[in-house]
């Protein structure tokens, strides 16, 4: 089976590099530097998405939005121009499950297959082979793709039919986004009442308030003052907005989720859409008049 990968950014590049360790890839990205990086690891660069489709039996994509996935599939020089009957397209974008199901119907009409397999765990999880992969596909299609996904990570989950992977990813990201903001607020509460930031994190990591933000974001980024993570406020707001729109369309009330979306919009208004997601901690510090980061980092 010939395998391709399209979208070699911060997340897609890490996933492709992990897969390239065991599976020779044909790759495409708008960035020549990104393709060169994979080529140095043994991958074959392709000038267009169409060329990837012509060479491969299975193509994975990892882009920023479902609109970009649609463009890669059906735009000029896109996958649809080169798809062979039976080719499988696996979308690892954090996407819109409703759009994913539309894409499935349109790709299926071409005689190929489309499924979703988004991930959670960031580039470090991809590099370590531990990232969570949520695959939405019919059982027979999943069985064909599973060995390739397990070449990326040992943590692969079949979540149901097409679109269910993106449903699970949006639910996960909304929970993560909410925990991130609440952790900043609670840390300000503890620090504002005399507990050192590192002590507060250490204690809560051993208690019932433990979460991913305390386990990873604080030790790596907040307590060190090295805020850059490579994930923007705009992308976080996009994920949260997709989750709240999914709730609206399915009739599920999101009392807290809607507030989370508005908090990220407020952060964008004050810090800019391209600010790193960790920059939002500054807003909580200002509101509480405390510092969670080292003073010398501003």
Automatic annotation (TrEMBL):
The keyword Oxidoreductase is annotated on this UniProt entry: yes
Active site residues of this protein: 169
GO molecular function: NAD binding; NADP binding; oxidoreductase activity, acting on the CH-OH group of donors, NAD or NADP as acceptor
Domain 3-hydroxyisobutyrate dehydrogenase-like NAD-binding: 163-283
Keywords assigned: NAD, Oxidoreductase
Coiled-coil segments: none
Parts of the chain that traverse the membrane: none
6-phosphogluconate dehydrogenase NADP-binding domain mapped to chain residues: 2-160
Protein name: NAD(P)-dependent oxidoreductase
Lineage: Bacteria, Pseudomonadati, Pseudomonadota, Alphaproteobacteria, Futianiales
């Amino acid at each position: 089976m010939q395998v391709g990968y399209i979208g070699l950014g911060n997340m897609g590049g890490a996933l492709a590099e992990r897969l390239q360790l065991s599976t020779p890839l044909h790759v495409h990205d708008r960035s020549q530097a990104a393709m060169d990086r994979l080529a140095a690891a043994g991958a074959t660069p392709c000038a267009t998405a169409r060329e990837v489709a012509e060479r491969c039996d299975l193509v994975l994509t990892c882009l920023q939005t479902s609109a970009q996935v649609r463009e890669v599939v059906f735009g000029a020089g896109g996958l649809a121009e080169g798809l062979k009957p039976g080719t499988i397209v696996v979308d690892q974008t954090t996407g819109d499950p409703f759009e994913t199901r539309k894409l499935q119907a349109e790709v299926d009409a071409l005689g190929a297959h489309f499924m979703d397999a988004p991930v959670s765990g960031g580039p470090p999880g991809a590099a370590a082979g531990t990232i969570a992969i949520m695959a939405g596909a019919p059982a027979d299609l999943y069985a064909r793709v599973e060995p390739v996904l397990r070449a990326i990570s040992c943590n692969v989950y079949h979540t149901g039919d097409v679109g269910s992977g993106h449903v699970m990813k949006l639910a996960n990201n909304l929970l993560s986004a909410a925990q991130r903001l609440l952790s900043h607020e609670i840390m300000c509460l503890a620090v504002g009442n005399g507990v050192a930031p590192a002590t507060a994190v250490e204690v809560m990591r051993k208690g019932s308030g433990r979460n991913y933000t305390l386990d990873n974001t604080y030790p790596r980024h907040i307590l060190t003052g090295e805020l850059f993570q490579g994930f923007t406020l705009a992308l976080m707001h996009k994920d949260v907005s997709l989750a709240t729109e999914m709730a609206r369309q399915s009739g599920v009330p999101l009392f807290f989720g809607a507030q989370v979306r508005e908090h990220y919009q407020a952060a964008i208004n004050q810090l800019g859409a391209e600010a790193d997601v960790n920059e939002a901690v500054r807003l909580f510090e200002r509101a509480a008049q405390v510092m969670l980061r080292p003073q010398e980092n501003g």
